[in-house]
Amino acid sequence: MGRAIARLNSLINYEKIGVGPKGLESFYNLLESIGNPHQKIKNVIHIVGTKGKGSVSFAISTALINEGYKVGLYTSPHLVSLLERIRLNNKPISEEKLSLYVDMILDKVKDRGFKTFFEVLTASAIMYFLDEKTDFNVFEAGVGGRLDATNVLNQDMVVITRIDYDHMDVLGNTLEDITREKSAVIKGKIPVITTKNNRRVLDVILRRVEEFGAQLYVVDWEIIRFDRYGIEVEVEGERFSAPVLGEFQGENLALAYKALKLLGIEKPKFFNLSIPGRLQVISKDPYIIVDGAHNTIAIKKLLESLKALFPEKRFKVVLALSSDKNFKEIVWELSRTNYELYITRYPFPRSVWVEDMFKYSYVFGKPPKILNSTSEILSLLNEGDVVITGSFYLVGEVLKLLGF
Fold it and tell me: Please, what are the domains in the chain?
């Protein structure tokens, strides 16, 4: 592990401990001490929502690159290497470059004010993209929106993906509360693109849009085809395709397509789109599929896609979850399939204990098997078709084990 990554990992990391920041004041102070780079970066496309943020971010970035633009992309979490979070034309930042920014920031601010892992990483991304003179910058919010470090940016466009119950200990217990937190990134007269969602969600977004004089675009779409080779989608009478798996990607691609059209891309192209950790097939003999579905709606969509794409297969599903998830609902959805359930943990404190998941699984009449070690997970991968899901952290651990 390099020095920059070690310095980052020495900071408070809300992702690992499962809580959120109480405000952005300390981050604004940090940014001021390094010259307010967030006020200088232009053409910012901000992606918030519950499900699909990463897919939309990669789709927009890829299509812009296909048009010849230089594109900065900031996403989270990472799968294998922290460097994946900051990309230039879809290539991860080098460790040397990241070290330059992390050292500069931490050496400059030293003991002045509170600093977190995500704040320093976000500031590093902003500075990197400024130095590289990018044409467009796609920033995916971490958790929520209002108090997320990415919300210091002056957005030129906001895309709100599907909103559902998630991170309720941080964002609130109702769809309205969660939507208010996420739509708080709307701060000016900019285009705001969202999906149909539901009426409760749309009403909250509409009030925020009207308050700031923004222009709301609610995207409608139709899936023409999806199979093991990709998906074809229709938006506003125009059809396009992408080489990604899963019916759920139709909605994400529709949002990306509309955003790109508003950016002036006449016919967005997704021909080389790859979305890490989203219904990603890493082996076909046997099938090994990784998917970071980490809430109820994402698990439902994953299971629907698996059934449609691989109706003949009886997958072994390896599941680890974070403690803020509704694991009772998620285990219930899995219990309704003919798949075999294996439960495990990932190596962070917020990972749910297998005993708790086992208790709920047993109630549903399908006791799962417990995997206590990474070697047991590796052994299972040789025993048939396997899906790894429930957390990007678990997906990342498995990919590391397999040498990705």
Answer: 3-262 (3.40.1190.10), 280-401 (3.90.190.20)
